[in-house]
Write a structure and sequence with these properties.
- This protein has 2 domains: 201 residues, Cation efflux protein transmembrane domain (Alpha-lytic protease prodomain-like, Up-down Bundle), CATH 1.20.1510; 110 residues, Alpha-Beta Plaits, CATH 3.30.70.
- The protein is 64% helix and 9% strand.
- The protein has 9 helices and 3 strands.
- The protein has a 3-stranded mixed β-sheet, covered by helices on one side.
Length: 325
């Protein structure tokens, strides 16, 4: 699948170059700042798409001695790079719009510019939708970021087109600079959001939706002998996941039996979550306080009666402490 993803990104890059040319053509025939802002973001689409293609290739290079967890973190750098470029473009366009507002100029062939921009906007929207769809299926942050970027570009371009139509009807040309500035502010916030997402990934910030998904898998496949699971942690490296947790088992089990139970948990997670590249499960011995939540019947060493089954939740399963009543 990584090869297929690279082909998709390469095709997207080619289309982005074509759309960039169309948008700049629209600017040169209209001299519209608003269209120039849209065209400038197309440059970012091309640069970001190129870096995304490189990062996707590097993210799937096998782990080695210098990179024991693989090269997947490059995807976060790719997302942050894309976000930084978007912010820079937005700032430059605000400066350009302010200058043009103070020193206004005429706009030519606006209707043709609107048509060209509309066509490229629709293409961007559907490409972005497709990239997000594939990115979610393959857990590729790079593809999802590229898709969200293209779709946010399309959404803002739709608003831009409405403003250009107003200018076409009213001939109030100073609105062009105002629209360009508003569009620039919008893309700046888009860029900041991408930088924030990249920073969270580099800092291994907890991924709540992913944690919730794993907890659901654990609850559905729960074994009676799994007295407790806690200290669950998930780190994402590109498409791959590193999962570790503590599994509480009966203290009187021998090493082989405990190992087999740990292996069973690993196999279930690998089956239900194919993107998991590795799991580290630490086996904990049960304590007397564990009896109250232990569902093993006829336990010869039980010191307290069973009280209730503890439902594993996302809030409790990540804590580094055994569950108890």
């Amino acid at each position: 699948m990584p090869k297929k993803l690279k082909i998709i990104l390469a095709q997207t890059l080619i289309v982005s170059v074509i759309l960039m040319i169309i948008k700049f053509w629209a600017y040169f025939i209209t001299n519209s700042n608003a269209i120039l802002t849209d065209a400038s973001e197309s440059i970012i689409n091309v640069i970001a798409g190129s870096f995304a293609l490189f990062s996707l290739h590097l993210a799937n290079v096998p782990k080695d001695e210098n990179h024991p967890y693989g090269h997947g973190k490059i995807e976060f750098l790719s997302v942050g790079f894309e976000g930084g470029l978007i912010v820079l473009a937005g700032v430059v366009m605000i400066i350009k719009s302010t200058y043009s507002f103070i020193y206004p100029h005429t706009i030519d062939e606006l209707l043709l510019g609107i048509i060209l921009t509309a066509v490229s906007t629709l293409v961007n929207f559907f490409i972005g939708y497709y990239l997000i769809l594939i990115g979610k299926k393959q857990r590729s942050m790079t593809m999802q970021a590229d898709g969200h970027h293209l779709q946010s570009d399309a959404y803002s371009s739709f608003g831009l087109l409405l403003g250009l139509l107003v200018i076409q009807i009213t001939n109030i040309f100073w609105l062009d600079s105002v629209l360009a500035a508003l569009f620039a502010v919008f893309i700046i916030f888009t860029g900041i959001a991408l930088v924030r997402k990249a920073t969270a990934g580099i800092m291994d910030e907890a991924n709540a939706p992913l944690l919730s998904e794993v907890v659901e898998i654990l609850n559905k496949n729960r074994e009676i002998s799994w007295i407790d699971i806690h200290n669950l942690r998930i780190i994402q490296y590109g498409q791959h996941l590193h999962i570790d947790a503590h599994l509480t088992l009966p203290y009187y089990w021998d090493l082989e039996k405990s190992h087999n139970e740990v292996k069973k948990l690993e196999d279930i997670m690998l089956e239900k979550h194919p993107q998991t590249s590795e799991m580290f499960i630490h086996a904990d011995p049960c304590l007397p306080t564990s009896c109250a939540i232990c569902q093993i019947e006829n336990c010869a060493v039980r010191v307290h009666k069973f009280v209730q089954k503890i439902e594993w939740s996302m809030d409790s399963i990540v804590k580094n402490q055994k569950h108890q009543v």
